[in-house]
Amino acid sequence: MSIMNNPRFDVVQDAFKKRAATVEIPAMKTSDYFGELVFNREKMRKYLDAKTYKDLVNCIDNGESLDRSTADKVAAGIKTWAMEHGVTHITHWFQPLTEGTAEKHDSFLDYDGKGGMIETFDGTSLVQQEPDASSFPSGGIRATFEARGYTAWDPTSPVFIQDDTLCIPTVFVSYTGEALDYKTPLKKALKAVNDAALPICKMFDPNVKKVYSYLGWEQEYFLVDEDLYAARPDLMLTGRTLMGHASSKNQQLEDHYFGAIPSRVAAFMRDIEIAGYKLGIPLKTRHNEVAPNQFELAPIYGETNLSNDQNQIIMNVMNSIARKHGFVVLFHEKPFEGINGSGKHNNWSLGTDTGTLLLAPGKDAMGNLQFVTFFVNVLAAVQKHNSLMKASIASATNAHRLGANEAPPAIVSAFLGKTMTDVLHKLLSVPSDTPIEIAGKKGQSVGLVEIPEIFVDNTDRNRTSPFAFTGNRFEFRAVGSSANCAGAMTALNAAVAEQLIAFKAEVDKAMAAGKEMNVAFMDCLKPIIKSIIDVVCFDGNGYSEEWKAEAAKRGLDTETNVAKMFKAYTSPDAVKLFTTLGIYSEKELEARNEVKWETYSKKVQIEARVMGRMAINHIIPAALDYQTRLLQNIDLCKQAFPADYQTLALTQIELVKELSGLMKDIQYKVDAMVKARAKANEIPCEYEKALAYHDIAESLFAIRKSIDQLEELCDNSTWPLPKYREILFIN
Ligand code: ADP
Ligand code: MG
Q1: Is residue 289 within 6 Å of ligand 1 at its C-beta?
Q2: How crowded is residue 44: how many other Cβ atoms within 10 Å of its Cβ?
Q3: Ligand 1 atom 1: the closest Cα is on which residue?
């Protein structure tokens, strides 16, 4: 085969020649069109009468229910607004236990009863729908024959317009009331953390009426040219490359991070931002990430439920806008070996309706005591529910980023930074009535505990920690780029709620025994500080081999098998946590684990099939092709120089042998993998099956290794798949 005959070269050339698409930039300031496509308070005021507006706001802010006639009026207002934007359809938009979101569109159209047609949309269709839900994962909660599941409007997340469709954010529950989605448990956990934190905050400031959980996600992703993507069956079907030799240049020069954004990518980013702003998503940051063709996008943080919806929306928007720019977005956590994977760092904090961030230093000694209280209790929660935190971010795809080869170990520890580590040590050594001062205010004094007033921008960073304190929040960095943040946010907020309830009970006891409030708090905090400071708190290199051994010694969870990690959800501690707070019933926990195991097995099964077929249909034929040419060459040598052809054709002969060896090896390993799959498929128990598939996933590494060696050996012009150096450097 000559160079000209390999279609891969045409694809690469075409991809390289592409230029930035034009972006329609609105002729107004961003703030003028921000939220244009969401039914926010401004629209509510415009499209609803005063009483309806008041009732709806009361429903959103205080959880009051809406009666049917008010719901009708809200629906009428929304319909008028939507039709002004050319909307013809509505959908209940929800987040089932699959990846991504689900929607089923119904048009506004109906008979008017007078022989004509009319657009209708009433309170009933706003509030509740009954999608045929039988083919969404439910872990057996809802057998297929009783397919009914309900979607119910979540008024706390505004209705929005996508193209010709009005999207109504909803929860998705079964006929018997169990959650079938991510949103329902998240909302319950957010309520739990408010209920738990509020009484504590009230002790510091009686004016506080509500505690919010905040989320600021940083979405990492890769962009791949769509033509190169289409030439890679593994990318198309599994979202990652199952094979591919490392490029000679990858991220070692660190020249991509924060580098100039390539023009095609910049146009894509601008387009997403415009779409995001219209949808009321406050996108703030865009930049290149560490790996070639890896980028990041982050909004200004907001209330967790809304912020998570916005993340789900923007992921959809990114998928569709990418195509306009000739790209495909990869949200997979580890699409390429040997370079960084993608996460979705969840910046998380708690704050009051009076504007206090509870994980930032306060204005005075009591403010600082409140800060230290929340800070320490969060760490205690993460320590107690260490396994659960990890289970909450575990998935078949994130497993490649955490715990697998060349990835940070799957251990959830917390990074405090030097300042806060010192503060905690100091607190243990001083009397409980020592005020926690703002640094510098009283000059240097040996007995004082001091905290810098603001240290968001000057906290030291540790990029190897999965849960890092960054001055006014914790950054849960272990969350995967393809994940729904709700999984991690439900577990974290729940664990913190439980811890705060237990803490408050201790404080109450101490105060009932006559202690002053500040002394009671410190007396209760000290034993907690002692129990966490040398266990979950770890400021060292989280990627190091020594840390694995050290973490195990400290009693932290070091399990690397994803299938086993999920078990943390049904451990006695987790069941107690979730059932006491009313977030999940035991049945729901079990059912959701079934779904996780099933999803895990299916994902590995797909990867294994793709790997097997690519090995046999793409790789071995390419190697044979090259080998045929080598053999022809050896034959020609023999004809021309019968006496010493063995010396003259030494390279070719050696290559033929090496190719044969690798092909045999691949064939043998693929056969074994196919047999293992057949055996795994017979296993009735989802957990056991996932364990078997875990071993199959491991076996793919070895097949890949041989294929990558073949890629190194084979003539470039015979190789059928776009190579790393092409996929990663064309944009
Ligand atoms: P980094 O330097 O960590 O990459 P980025 O600016 O990319 O920071 O993202 C930080 C994210 O954290 C943003 O979404 C930001 O709004 C969010 N954030 C900042 N403060 C808080 C807070 N108190 N609670 C939650 N999220 C926050
Ligand atoms: Mg960032």
Answers
A1: no
A2: 20
A3: 218
The domain spans of the chain are 34-181, 189-584, 599-727
- In the three-class reduction of DSSP (H, G, I as helix; E, B as strand; rest coil), residue 548 is classed as helix
Q: Ligand 1, residues 193, 211, 301: which to mutate, most atoms within 8 A of Cβ?
A: 301
216 CB near ligand 1 (under 6 Å)? yes
**Could you tell me if 293 and 728 are in contact, meaning their C-beta atoms sit under 8 angstroms apart?**
yes
Token look-up 């009433």 returns 122
Q: How far is the CA of 321 from the centre of ligand 2 (A)?
A: 22
What per-residue string of b and e applies to 489-506 under the rule 16 or more CB within 10 Å gives b?
bbbbbbbbbbbbbbbbeb
Q: How many Å lie between the centroid of ligand 2 and the Cα of residue 212?
A: 23
Helix, strand, or coil (residue 594): helix
Condensed to tens digits (0 to 9), the pLDDT of residues 375-390 reads 999 999 999 999 999 9
Confidence of residue 104 (pLDDT cuts 50, 70, 90): confident
Cα 55 to chain centroid distance, Å, stands at: 35
Q: Is 299 in the pocket of ligand 1 (CB under 6 A)?
A: yes
The finding on whether 472 has its CB within 6 A of some atom of ligand 1 is: yes
* Token digits of residue 30: 């961003």
The answer to whether residue 144 scores a pLDDT higher than 70 is no
Do the Cβ atoms of 614 and 234 come closer than 8 Å? yes
pLDDT in tens, 592-627: 999 999 999 999 999 999 999 999 999 999 999 999
Model-wide pTM > 0.85: yes
Q: How far is the CA of 182 from the centre of ligand 1 (A)?
A: 23
What the block records as the tokens of 663 is: 């092909």
What's the CA-to-centroid distance between 560 and ligand 2, angstroms?
26
Tokens 């505990």 sit at which residue?
449
pLDDT tier at 139, thresholds 50, 70, 90: confident
Identify which ligand lies nearest to the alpha carbon of 294: 2
Q: Is 348 in the pocket of ligand 1 (CB under 6 A)?
A: yes
What is the second-level CATH architecture of the domain 599-727?
Answer: Up-down Bundle (1.20)
Alpha carbons 625 and 628: distance in angstroms, whole number: 5
Nearest CA to ligand 1 atom 13: 216
34-181 under CATH 1.10.3720.10, yes or no: no
CATH superfamily, domain 189-584, is Glutamine synthetase/guanido kinase, catalytic domain (3.30.590.10)
Instruction: Give residue-wise pLDDT tens across range 202-237.
Output: 999 999 999 999 999 999 999 999 999 999 999 999
Taking 70 as the threshold, does the pLDDT of residue 327 lie above it? yes
